Amino acid sequence: MRTAFKCRAYPAPEQVSVLNRTFGCVRVVWNRTLAWRHARYHSEHAGTSFTQANAYLTGMKASQDLAWLNEVSSVPLQQAIQHQQTAFNGFFAGRARYPRYKSRGGRQCAEYTRSGFR
Hints:
Strand content: under 5%
Structural class: mainly alpha
Mean pLDDT: 91
Order of helices and strands: HHH
């Protein structure tokens, strides 16, 4: 059985900085991957698998202009790709709308799995 905990945190100023950086990186990964999937579908008429999206994330982290993605934990970035894949599965199954781009003013979130902690 899986459990989830919801808690309210009051982070210190340096922790706020790390969280804001993580939220921004997750948003950039989501938006760029969504744009890449959209462009890839319209140019090649091919779907994108989770493995291909993860490879695209690796390429983003290796590029010079997005090298700052390496400053945050990789777990929330990979979880953003996983959530996007789930959103597309729901869309193609007819249960949900097409995934939307994330904005700075929207709800900020980042998910850490158990493997993200030591």
